[in-house]
Design brief:
335 residues, mainly alpha, binds protoporphyrin IX containing FE, binds 2-acetamido-2-deoxy-beta-D-glucopyranose, hydrogen peroxide
Length: 335
């Protein structure tokens, strides 16, 4: 890892250096011409243009502070951005609270264990004090996820900003989130509907290098799996016992051996048949995706590069601009 070899330089300072280099090398404008699938109006320098140059730093500092207190929150922030983008686009719909007349996305069973809402609220409050009405909740979420990847040891990358917040959040829309029972072909198809390649999908699944799952997400693998198997045959026998234990004492199972470190160990776990979710292990079992898993297990730099590109792409899903959205004053409530 070249970044880590820079030794005593703090991650924050390093980020500023890279940001500056980025500005010098590529200029300010994200003009959408460069192959991301493009959204006019989003720009790398959006908050400079909007006279709120502190926006990035405020988000980064807050994420750093929270992760130092609780490193497991990196997983929470990254997952929240994913759930936001796959439902109604990256428009912070995942942050909206239910009201009397509307049950919001966050109260769907698919939200299972989403955490970290308070971090976003805190950042929003600080930003509203500094530059009221300028920084959208959707951008805060996208920047926070990006910073979480970085502070957990993953790649550093810049993202275009300028998303607007949506005005809809309905429990029924969470049907667009992939359940952990999908096989590799189904995942390829579902992610393909959002414009992702199979390689993007395998790279994005690598977010499971961080965090944990609960029994409810994998118990279907442990009994009555299918008509011919009681236990999922793609699951290592010893690991099946570990998972059963998690179910009996209701504890969480980490996806890989380094749950707070962003690395490629998740792919090594798949090679060992110790993928936690069926949807994880299937990436290794299916010949269409096995080669990608092997490549990422072998070459962390390749995983990092593909992951950051796929995250930038994910962050552009059905982005709202102009009057199609708003900048919420409170991320939990539509203006
Ligand atoms: C490929 C399809 C995916 C499926 C089926 C899936 C499913 C799941 C499930 C079932 C959990 C565990 C929830 C629980 O038991 O509490 C989980 C956790 C997680 N997912 Fe995914 N996921 C997918 C893709 C992604 C993507 C694309 C990202 C982000 C880019 C992501 C980030 C995470 C993270 C970080 C966690 C851990 C959360 C924590 O520890 O708080 N997942 N996912
Ligand atoms: C997730 O949804 C459940 C209902 O299925 C709800 O009880 C829970 O509070 C929600 N979790 C969060 C963090 O909003
Ligand atoms: C994946 O699931 C679909 C639908 O259940 C099934 O038709 C297909 O055969 C499965 N693919 C593999 C490789 O198991």
């Amino acid at each position: 890892m070249i970044y880590q070899s820079l030794g005593e330089m703090g991650k924050y300072e390093l980020f500023m250096v890279i940001l500056l280099m980025d500005i010098i090398v590529s200029g300010w404008r994200f003009d959408g011409g460069g192959g991301y699938g493009l959204v006019d109006g989003l720009r790398m320098d959006y908050y400079y243009m909007m006279n709120c140059p502190f926006a990035e730093g405020i988000v980064k500092n807050a994420v750093n502070r929270h992760l130092q207190a609780d490193p497991t929150l990196a997983a929470a922030l990254i997952r929240m951005h994913f759930h936001d983008c796959f439902v109604e686009g990256c428009d912070a719909s995942v942050l909206i609270d239910s009201t009397k007349g509307n049950t919001a996305e966050k109260d769907s069973p698919a939200n299972l264990s989403l955490r970290g809402y308070e971090i976003i609220d805190e950042i929003k409050e600080e930003l509203e004090n500094r530059c009221p009405g300028v920084v959208s909740c959707a951008d805060i979420l996208a920047m926070a996820a990006r910073d979480a990847v970085f502070f957990a040891g993953g790649p550093v990358y810049d993202i275009p900003k300028g998303r607007k917040d949506g005005r809809r959040s309905r429990i029924e829309d969470t049907i667009n989130l992939p359940p952990p029972t999908l096989n590799s072909s189904e995942l390829i198809r579902l992610f393909g509907q959002h414009g992702f390649t199979a390689q993007d999908m395998v790279a994005l699944s690598g977010a499971h290098t961080l965090g944990v799952a609960r029994c409810s997400s994998f118990k279907h693998r442990l009994s009555n799996f299918d008509s011919t198997h009681d236990v999922d045959p793609t699951l290592d026998a010893q690991f099946a016992k570990t998972l059963s234990k998690r179910c009996s004492d209701n504890s969480e199972q980490a996806f890989d051996t380094t749950k707070n470190t962003f690395d490629n160990d998740y792919y090594n776990a798949l090679q060992r048949k110790t993928g936690v979710l069926f949807s994880d292990q299937t990436l290794y079992n299916n010949p269409r995706t096995r080669g990608i898993v092997n490549a990422y297990a072998f070459n962390q730099a390749m995983f990092f590069l593909d992951f950051q590109q796929a995250m930038i792409k994910m962050g552009l899903l059905d982005v709202k601009e102009g009057s199609n959205g708003e900048v919420r004053a409170n991320c939990r409530i539509i203006n």
